[in-house]
Structures
1.
Amino acid sequence: MAGRRTNLALLVALALAFATGWLAFAAGTGWGAAVVIAHGVLGLGVLVLTPWKSTIARRGLSKKRKGTSSSLILTVLVIVSLLAGIAHSLGLTGRVAGLTVMQIHVGAAVGAVPFAIGHLARRPAGVRRTDLSRRNLLRAMGVAGGGALLYAGFESASKVFSLIGQNRRFTGSHEIGSHEPARMPVTQWLNDSVPSIDAGTWSLATKTVAGERRWTLDELLEHRHHLTATLDCTGGWYAEQEWTGVPLRALLPSAEGRSVMVHSQTGYARRFPIRDLDSLLLATEVEGSPLSAGHGFPARLVAPGRRGFWWVKWVDLIEVDDRPWWIQLPFPME
């Protein structure tokens, strides 16, 4: 495969792998399985291109050119991200320098982006009409097929050797602490930290166009609705638990609007379509015991079918308004 076409194929594979990786973070229901598989196939497709790219790299290193160090950093970050992704898939969920392999996988991929943009600016791989020829399309299918074969090989190896990876959820997450909340990891999005909340002074505010009401913890504890739901964290783990609490519909029985915003005491918040009121639960207990501080005491949101960053912890305000639910960043930035 010619150098320019190899670089172009590599660029497309990396871009699509990055895009499907972020889309996989949003996958909370069965449709996400196809996205996660595509992400794996595209990532392994990069490995298929390695023999051709290594030849190009050796030629490049033999010349003194501007940006060589940046290109080497990009290469290292891509390799680290690929290896960490493979390690997570196989079930190697330990920590390296305090980071999980999933954090390393995502962090290296994000860190590679500015170097990839700089590399492309210095050495653009322009698209030509001939790149869409039948021969080149067959080559692209060959690369994709190679990635698919590697993916199938890793999946088969997990089953043959009874690796932890064989029991991954369709999102790629590994089970930790199902029906044992004490074993469930304590995680929060980006800069949030676990707050110290006094149950005696804490209250929940609910706001609609009709006005505002405050609920004490004792009032919420009078509601005993049970819901078994799976918390699937983008950190690469999941846990099924029985949650006990108040359906949001019971807190907002006559709510009128287009969306409902759930706020955390930390400032974190997520907005949901109003139709989700019938499926959302404000949990005060998990597996029959009060929530721990790390898992959202005194009240957290349970959002079945959505990934963990939607399950707002330490909830202190729920409000309904006429804004569309999608007027927010796909992933929170705080």
2.
Amino acid sequence: MGPTKFDVTAECFNAFNDRTVDSVDTTLGNETGDGAYLGDDGYPLFGRPLTRQDPRYFQFGLRGEF
């Protein structure tokens, strides 16, 4: 039997927890030009963040060759 080898890995994704916006709402207004669409809170929908980057997460692994 040959030599045995083990590898331990640890990875961290998005290490600085950057929650950068990936996409925004581009809804400006209706076709009649009455103005911008407003959300439930009264603020315009245009430019609101729709998605952000995933928060940081860690992944650990163990691999063996024998």
3.
Amino acid sequence: MSFVINRAIEWTRRSREPARSLRARAAQIRDRKPLVVVPSILGTRILDERGGVLWGSLPRLYFGPAIAHAPRATAAGTLDGFAVVPGLFRYDIYGGLLRYLAGVGGYTHDRDLYVLEYDWRESVSHGAARLAELVARVRAAGHRGGVDLLAISSGGLVARHFLAGTNEAIGRVVYVGTPHRGTFQAIAALHDGIQMVPLGRRFSAVELAACQTCWDSLPHPDEAVFVDDRGAALPDSLYDARTWRALRLGPPVEIEAYLERALGLHRALDAAPVHADSVVIGARHLPTLSKLPVVRGRAVLPPCSPRRGDPLARVLFEPGDSSLPARSLVGLPGLAAGAIRTVVVDEHRLLPSHGDVHRLAVEALLESAS
């Protein structure tokens, strides 16, 4: 379905500089590497065993079964966006990015542009296994050279886990807003759930806790997450289930296995070889939560933005994109100083649909191809 307003906005962007220059550069490339886009958690539509939409339609933002429902569900296409006014306007997620890659970057779907479809509820390691299968299919289709990757948010962890265990020739990897050292927002979601749109339904902590990828996105085990009411660091381990219970943090479910798998993921990524040809794109201009205060023996989730006059604000917040601290964004082992590209966005979730991200991603991929 064509959305008139979206296409008009995109046409205007692509008709300006530097999109015209990028399109001209892309047209000169004769032997480009195929590109695989790796979406983040929530980035792929999920259908239940009867073909009903479990995740990926506008109504599911307001009502419907828990996203952990239907263990035999299947991935069913990239989440382009949510149709707000059918045929006229869609709230963009990945649609604009994919069209920019095609219209400006010169890629062609299913010829040299592929998107990973996977059940993001499972785990980062599950996504990495599906990525390995897709890359193998791309190579079998006749692409004998390397493959580039464009990984969004938690999709970057999927890409890194794949890289740690593959012998495939991988060219440039572009990470957009990837939590290389995890994100505090994973703690917040597992403690309080998330509401994705105003007046929408709250996705509960219990249903999110059934998604291993949420646990896989927790802050790195070496991060000192907990502080006391004066801002001093506390020794409590985020990866010890007893900590969660003692501080009354998170949902009242059995979490030992989830934490163990998440800890194993971080250690595996820490031990993985460095992939030198990497670029990071993200924002670091907004105050972003990174610490959790413990008051009277209980974890107290702070507000998302610093409160005026709060003496703990300088401890609890650091620069980032409102969800991902900049330290985590650039925490990729072996990242070159010149491989960091920054944008200005209102919040983390807008990165995949942001025009400057689209431009910087294509620039980074063309650099690798030239």
4.
Amino acid sequence: MSFKRLDPEDVLISADSITAPAWTDNLVSLTTFYTSSGQAASASGDFYLDVYQTGSQDDTAEVQFTVGYGDYLGSGSISFDNSSAPGYTPSLVNYNTYRNLILADKSATSKFKFQGGSAGATVESEFIYIINIERSRFKEHMLPTTFELTLISGSEKLVLRNEIPSSLTFNDAGRVYNIISGSLSDSTDLTPTALKTESGSFGLFQPDIGVIILNGQALHAPTAGGGLGLAGTPIAALRTSNTDTSGSQLLFNHIVEGASFKLSSDETVSSNYVFVRARNNEFNYSANPSILTGSGDLKYSYLIDNPRTYITSIGLYNDSNDLLAVAKLSRPLLKDSTREALVRVKLDY
């Protein structure tokens, strides 16, 4: 084995942005949606529903995202203990959890706020729908310009996407985009507040944590006011105290009807390039002891004046001689005094 210290110019660090479809099998648009009856009936089903691209019992089934419902008052779900903790329900836990995750104001009385209501005012919403993309699906973050979700309620259709702001806005969870009506194929400007309802925008798109918060007030608003009139379900009926009104299932049903959820992931892959150079007078003699006789002479006399080796692998060591990485060549590389070699080693992380 032979060693050589690398020079500073032999190491180069590069970063590339890689975009890929978010869904299983490299699908840009997910058109089929399934839940698991077992998961829905379990304790976790009170908080959210896992959504698969195929039947949950199928060998190829993978969770793509989850849907949930959150309520500021804890309405729409059953109390954990109505006698000692009335109103403390899964929907309240969901609302508080995502409020703490996303909002800068973490007080117990703060509510989700959505921009773009009447005259551009900010509108509070006491109930939300939650879409949480599976971590392995969005990788480093979701790509904002690829998000499109279709919801259908009866004869009404609503296509959602994030707006394209003139400047980025940030909250505790990173970048935040308002969700408005409009498809990815629209050629019109999608920034005016006219594309939002009187109840505010349709939600918040959080690409850095893979979370989509949908504004319940906007989705249930009548179509005349720019909403969807979600399933014709009155807000009062949805937000019934200590009653499971299946908000998660309601959102899932409309996603199934829409049959189109488009999304891509985006991640920055850093690469460390190491250029390993073997000059004409280097690495021409094998360090393998089997090439020597018992007395220390070369077994093959013709190698004395014409030494040659075959490079098969390259090891990268630190200053303490700890092996950090091994690069295998696709085929042995002949090396003698008439040849020089340059091998580029790429380390992705």
